[in-house]
């Protein structure tokens, strides 16, 4: 009976495990592939990108080293045996354990320098994450633009097909030339060629996204739904620069490097002060009771040249770290001003395209095609109107891509969302 109950319990356990596996697989299938929004891709990149994961491991390694940075060196075990012949055999055996203690705050300075290195590693990790986020945002904008361009191309193909049909009707009624039919067919063929080019560009953008996510090049991506909104009011470059001082990973790493260099410079100055070594242990003697010995020693800092050279080196490293931080801030300031100006210009262009040129091009295309279909108008004018609408749609998509590129650049520089 007990065996049967055990078998029944094991069977129920296996069924429950199988149901759990099936349900989790169904949930993943229901979620579908990533790519509908840029947020889904950013979350994957944070988990999967090798460069970001390597930067995180560097931070972990630096933190592990910092834990032992202020620890004492290993103690030293010394055995000293002495043997004398003075009317008889006499020997002494000194067993001593000694420990060196750095004084004058040297251990604390070493620990501070190691903690600063941890902060620098965190800054580099943040910079790697921000750089990856910017690349994903830009690649997603391209993926979205080429996906939408294919939709526009299909609309243009429909218009070109209608135009060709209208041309053939007019030619059949004796109201058009054969050259017009050929020209309309050529226009329809051009839209098919353009579709092939756009599809290749879309696949290229998808492959770039998959590479950033450490996925196979042909891994499926969902159809992009929307781009991130552009802020209606853009901040001034001064406020962006303030955010970069506190949020930019490279600036954080440079500031931490300055703190580390300052700690090591102060440590080099303390090298002129001696360290103390304390020891003690039993003394085993022949034909005598066991005694005890104690010792205290001080290091003598007489290597003046080496200590001065180390002081000069640490001072130079401190100056270099400060100059490096200043250079990074100057580069960020110039890049922020440039990206903000380009974002403003792209936003203005998008507004003009949406409010003026798009309605004008759409109205002209509809009117010209309708007129030509009714036997009026010129084929060249109809084709020109079609091209104008197509070019306006593509220009709008390029402008949106430019906006997303500059927005991603600004957010990378300030280390957060705008």
Automatic annotation (TrEMBL):
One of its GO terms (molecular function) is efflux transmembrane transporter activity. Residues 1-29 form the signal peptide. Coiled coil: none annotated. SUPFAM superfamilies: Outer membrane efflux proteins (OEP) (SSF56954). Keywords: Signal. Belongs to the outer membrane factor (OMF) (TC 1.B.17) family. PANTHER family: BLR4935 PROTEIN, OUTER MEMBRANE CATION EFFLUX PROTEIN. This is Heavy metal RND efflux outer membrane protein,CzcC family.
